User: Fold this.
Amino acid sequence: MKKLLAIALSAVMLVSLAGCGGAAAPAAAPAASGGAAPAAEAPKDVIKITYACTTADTNPQAIAAKWMAERLKELSDGRIEMTVFNNNKLGAFSDCFAQMQQPNGTVQMGDVSPASVTQFSEVFTPFSLPFLFSSKEQSYNYFDNAETIKKAEEQFLADTNVRVLGYYYNDARALTNSKRAVHTPADMAGLKLRVMTSDVYIKTFEALGSVPVGMQFSELFSALQQGAVDGQDNGLLNVIDSKFYEVQKYYTDLGHVQDTSVIFVSEAFYQSLPEDIQQIIVQAAKESVDYNRQLCDEKLGDYLKQLEETVEVTILTDEERAAFRDACQSVYDWYRETYPQYDIDAIIKDIENY
Ligand code: EAX
Assistant:
């Protein structure tokens, strides 16, 4: 499987490299320098973008990214051709991200949960602390407008050489597993759960008494299917779209993180582009965020009904959820000690204004 992916990835790299050479190059040299007949129409420079994401075809992130590809084409009058490789077609997202960091990498854009890239920069770690945001609207407002987020984006760029363009909704994260219905933290004891490769998630799921295992999303379905892990913590959208419900028995609407999926562009690639194209990329990404959030609202209601057909669904009461929140307080203590450079208490206060 790994080998196949590697072959697929290098094939894509070749194609993409061929395309990229043209992308970064200046406008085609005029054919008519020596007084010969001027070229009637110089061929337009096509800028190729390879976009990587983890989500399946029906997920609002993948749909919005493909919509962005159309919008880029339209706004640039055909000069930008973006191809979206969703559903982990390019393999582990961490490898795709590493490509975005390179001057001539094979991947120029993509989106993923910020917790999946904490090994490249830790600046987004505060925002996946458990039960930090009280609603998806609050998290939208905060991510779109807060000064703290603007600063985090600047630091992220400095750390990684990758620019942030916006935030898709990656759902209120939930809990699925194959062992038992979960109503209380005690029900989680010993459950082996896949989490993103983020220390905040590891600490959160340890605090809840489970046994977290950091793993790329691209490995998750087979890990669930083969029983290598008992469960995972994606929300309703990914549970349905990536078909986890086929290999899971229980769902709890835990809501520990109002998650985003950050849209990235390689800074080296971005800086190689003319200004008008840069602006088009910024605009199309922003518009696709609105589209993504609208799609999420449309899908989420039906999705719960759909899930109830195959999986035992637990909807927590406020009191029940509070027990999980209380069980997570030690994660904040650990965070204050481990990351004193991020003033989490100031962030908590700040979020209340949104
Ligand atoms: O960004 O890895 C995950 O669980 C994420 O939710 C997924 O990649 C979507």
